[in-house]
Amino acid sequence: MTEQRRRRPGRRPGSLDTRGEIITAARGVFAEKGFDKATVRGIAREANVDPALVHHYFDTKEGLFVAAMQFPVEPSVAVPMILAGPREEMGERLIRFILTVASDEDRRAPIIAMIRSAMSNEQAATMVREFLGEAVLQRLAQGLGIDPIRIEAAFGQMIGVVMLRYIVKIEPIASATPDELVALLAPTLQRYVDP
């Protein structure tokens, strides 16, 4: 009697890097459709796998985007961490978080790549806008109970600081210590997030 091999659901046989193939498919789908219009089902179809396998590896569409775009932080972890703590220290937490992520070269590289891409490519700008808007900014605004424009203005200022510090490298902001920047920027960011 020959033993028949059963195919595992959700995965085609023979591939050793299914996760990598899903990421590759996701990059293409996100680039073509943007974050909002891309679906886990569509990405699974493109990778020729069952959608359950995408959920197995990445949990959510957001988690898949983070992996595919090499986003340096997982919003589902970062947003609650930023929101935790006294409201009157929110401005400091925001700027410390951004400076901590940006000071690590490996984590900074994808941020810089996304900023540069968004400035020169409308598809990239759409993806970044949709992802940041939905996964980060809306959640922060809701968690703080403020109008989204306030958190968008705060992030606009922080992205400007990251650009000046790490892309343009304007002095003295490029060589200022994180504590100097926190002392300078936290009060302004606090104004944005106060009700």
UniProtKB/TrEMBL annotation:
What is the protein name stated in its UniProt record? TetR/AcrR family transcriptional regulator
**High-level lineage:** Bacteria, Bacillati, Actinomycetota, Actinomycetes, Streptosporangiales
Q: What PROSITE patterns is this protein classified in?
A: HTH_TETR_2
Gene Ontology molecular function, alphabetical: DNA-binding transcription factor activity; transcription cis-regulatory region binding
- The organism encoding this protein is Herbidospora galbida
The record's InterPro entries line, in alphabetical order, gives: Homeodomain-like_sf, HTH-type_TetR-like_transc_reg, HTH_TetR, Tet_transcr_reg_TetR-rel_C_sf, TetR_C_16
| Keyword Secreted in annotation | no
Q: What are the HTH tetR-type domain coordinates in residue numbering?
A: 16-76
Instruction: Spell out the PANTHER family in the cross-references.
Output: HTH-TYPE TRANSCRIPTIONAL REGULATOR RUTR, TRANSCRIPTIONAL REGULATORY PROTEIN
